[in-house]
Each structure stands twice: as C-alpha cells, then as structure tokens.
Amino acid sequence: MSLTDILSPSDIAAALRDCQAPDSFSPKKFFQISGMSKKSSSQLKEIFRILDNDQSGYIEEDELKYFLQRFECGARVLTTSETKTFLAAADHDGDGKIGAEEFQEMVQA
C-alpha cells in the first residue's frame, strides 16, 4: 500500500507546494491540505506505518527530516528547526520519537 492509496495525489501535491520554501512547513496545515486530518483512525495507522521507514513502530527524528520525501521523492528535506518543532509538537511522552498514537493525536487535533 502507498500513501496515494489513502490520500489524493492532487491533495498531496497541494500540501507539498504549500511548504516548498525552507522553514515554511506547518504540520497542522500539511495534515489539513493533504486530507490526512479527515482520515479514520485505521487509515492514519496505515499512513503512520508507511511513514515509519524502518518499521520500528516509531518515527524518529532522522525519519522526520525526510517526512516530505515520503510523499514525493523530489520533495525537500525538513530543516533542523522544522524537524525539532514537529517532533516537539507530537512527542507527548518525551521519549524523542513519535509513536502511532501520538501521530494520530497530532493529526486529528
């Protein structure tokens, strides 16, 4: 399964266009434009599984940096500032990584 099986390719493209400039990425806005914020819990779990590149059950900081590239190969890498802000916003238990539940809470908030 790929992200385009769950999300519309045109919505993904619009979300990526919105954050092309460095330091312009807003997770909340990206989730809304891409359509992720409207998906069910089971769909969000599947999206999380796809984004968890090493299948560890967590999205770590090094994976977050490449978050946009999981949606499109040619997308930019998140800046250090964007990555740290994203992680801080989702990592509720302070373990330095984002679990599936934390991801789902952030997307649906």
TrEMBL record:
The keyword Calcium applies. CDD domains: EFh_parvalbumin_beta. One of its GO terms (cellular component) is cytoplasm. Signal peptide: none annotated. The keyword Metal-binding applies. Ca(2+) 2 binds at residues 91, 93, 95, 97, 102. It comes from the Eukaryota. GO terms for molecular function: calcium ion binding. Ca(2+) 1 binds at residues 52, 54, 56, 58, 63. InterPro entries: EF-hand-dom_pair, EF_Hand_1_Ca_BS, EF_hand_dom, Parvalbumin. Residues 39-74, 78-109 form the EF-hand domain. In muscle, parvalbumin is thought to be involved in relaxation after contraction. It binds two calcium ions. This is Parvalbumin. It comes from Manacus vitellinus.
